[in-house]
Design brief:
The chain is mostly beta strands. The chain has helices at 19-25, 55-64, 135-144, 302-306, 337-347; strands at residues 2-3, 9-10, 74-82, 90-100, 103-110, 113-120, 123-127, 152-166, 169-179, 182-187, 197-198, 204-208, 215-219, 226-230, 233-235, 238-240, 243-248, 251-263, 279-282, 291-294, 311-319, 325-330, 351-353, 355-357, 360-362, 364-372. It has a 13-stranded antiparallel β-sheet, with helices on both faces. The chain has a five-stranded mixed β-sheet with strand order 11-10-26-21-22, with helices on both faces. Strands 1-2 form a two-stranded antiparallel ribbon.
Length: 375
C-alpha cells in the first residue's frame, strides 16, 4: 500500500508525469519552526552528545535501499522529465529490477540515449551508446536513487543538527561529511599530477521525516544540485519517495514520479546469458584508486583571459579501464565556454593507471575540478 509521509494512502498508477501534479505535491520550504534548533544559517547549534549521531542516515538507508543485503525480488518503474535543456525538455523512462542481494538490472532511456546496467554476483556490466552523457542525466540518476545521497566516507561526522519545517513535515536535518565521492583537484598551467582522493571539506545537508525516516531533501550547496522528495510508496519494509525534484539553485531541472513498485517474479540472468556487446568488470565496492601518471597541463588561454573567464570548473567524469578520462559532464559550464574547451583539449592526453579490483581494471567515477586563477 502506498502512503505519504503522514500515513495517508496514495494511489500509484502508470502513465506520464504531469507537471501540475508534481507542483501540487512538491515541498515548499517554509520558515524555520519557532521552536526548532538553529539551522545552518544561524550557527547550527548542537545538542550535547549528538554531533556524531548518524542514526537518521542509517534508518533512511534501510528503508530506501532496494539493492541491499535484505533486497528481495522487486521492480521499480519511474517517469522523469529533464527540463531547461538547450534543445528543449526531454522525457526519461527508468526501470530497476532487483532479483536479490547483489543481483539487479537497470534501464535508463531518454531520447536516443538508452543505457543498460546491472550486477550479477561477482560481475558488473553495462551497455550504453557512444553519445555523451550530460550532467542533467547524471542528476536524474542521482534523483531516482535516494541512497546515493546517504553514502559517506569512513569516519564521517555530523557537523550541524537542526529541525526545519519543510512543507507539512517537521524535518530533522543534518549537515554531514565527508562524502564517499572521490575528487581530483587541478590548477591550470601546472605540471603537478593531482591525486584522486576523498575531500574532507565536501558535505551534504540532509533532512528526514521523523515518522517514516524518509529522506525529504539533500542539498549539496553552491553550484551543486538540491534534491527534494515527497509522498511515499511502500512495499513491505521498503519505502520510496513518490515524487522527486532536482533543482539547480532555484531552477527546477528534473522532476520524476514513481509509477510502480511491486514484487518481481523474473529470474535474473547469469554471466553466460549476457549479450556479447556488453562491457563487464569484477564487482567491487572498494577498488584500488586510479592514479594519474602523465598529463598535458590545462592551459588558461589568452582568449579566456581577455573575456575575463576565471575561477573554478567542476565536472563529473570516469576513468576508464583503459586509463583515459572520459564522459566529462560539467556541473556549471554555461558562462565559461573557453575554460571548458581548454579542459576538454588537455584531458585527451591524460593517462591514468586505472582503478582495479583483484588486479583487474574497473571503471571509476570521480569529480574533477580545475582552478583558473586570475593572473
Amino acid at each position: 500500500m502506498a502512503t505519504d509521509g503522514r500515513g495517508r494512502v496514495l494511489r500509484v498508477a502508470g502513465g506520464g508525469l504531469g507537471r501540475a501534479s508534481c507542483r501540487a505535491s512538491a515541498f515548499v520550504v517554509l520558515a524555520l519552526a519557532a521552536q526548532a534548533w538553529a539551522g545552518p544559517g544561524s550557527g547550527g547549534r548542537l545538542d550535547a552528545g549528538e554531533s556524531n549521531d548518524l542514526a537518521p542516515i542509517e534508518r533512511a538507508r534501510g528503508v530506501h535501499d532496494l539493492r541491499g543485503a535484505d533486497a528481495g525480488p522487486v521492480t521499480l518503474v519511474a517517469k522523469a522529465r529533464l527540463l531547461n535543456l538547450v534543445g528543449g525538455d526531454r522525457d526519461l523512462d527508468y526501470a530497476l529490477v532487483v532479483y536479490g542481494p547483489g543481483h539487479w538490472f537497470q534501464r535508463v532511456a531518454t531520447g536516443g540515449h538508452i543505457e543498460f546496467r546491472g550486477r550479477i554476483p561477482g560481475t558488473e556490466w553495462r551497455r550504453r551508446p557512444a553519445s555523451k552523457k550530460s550532467y542533467r542525466l547524471a542528476e536524474a540518476e542521482m534523483l531516482l536513487d535516494p541512497t546515493v545521497h546517504l553514502r559517506l566516507a569512513p569516519g564521517a561526522t555530523v557537523r550541524k543538527h537542526w529541525r526545519e519545517a519543510i512543507g507539512e513535515v517537521a524535518a530533522e536535518c543534518l549537515e554531514v561529511g565527508p562524502l564517499a565521492d572521490y575528487w581530483q583537484h587541478d590548477v591550470s598551467d601546472t605540471e603537478h599530477l593531482p591525486e584522486v582522493a576523498l575531500d574532507a571539506h565536501q558535505t551534504v545537508r540532509l533532512c528526514f521525516a521523523p515518522d517514516s525516516g524518509m529522506l525529504v531533501r539533500a542539498d549539496y550547496g553552491g553550484s551543486f544540485p538540491r534534491f527534494e522528495y515527497s509522498g511515499l510508496v511502500a512495499l513491505g519494509a521498503k519505502q520510496i519517495p513518490r515524487s522527486m525534484r532536482c533543482f539547480e539553485q532555484k531552477k527546477l531541472v528534473v522532476e520524476a514520479e514513481v509509477t510502480n513498485l511491486a514484487p518481481s517474479e523474473a529470474a535474473g540472468p547469469d554471466v553466460d546469458a549476457l549479450p556479447d556487446d556488453v562491457e563487464t568488470w569484477p564487482a567491487c565496492d572498494h577498488p584500488t584508486l586510479p592514479r594519474l601518471i602523465s598529463k598535458k597541463p590545462v592551459k588558461h588561454y589568452s582568449e579566456a583571459k581577455a573575456r575575463r573567464q576565471f575561477g573554478q570548473l567542476v565536472c563529473h567524469a570516469e576513468v576508464s579501464t583503459g586509463g583515459n578520462l572520459h564522459d566529462l559532464a560539467y556541473v556549471d559550464d554555461g558562462a565559461k565556454p573557453y575554460l571548458v574547451a581548454a579542459i576538454n583539449l588537455a584531458i585527451d592526453e591524460w593517462v591514468y593507471e586505472p582503478a582495479t579490483c583483484d588486479g583487474k581494471p574497473v571503471p571509476f567515477e570521480l569529480y574533477l575540478t580545475v582552478q583558473f586563477p586570475p593572473r
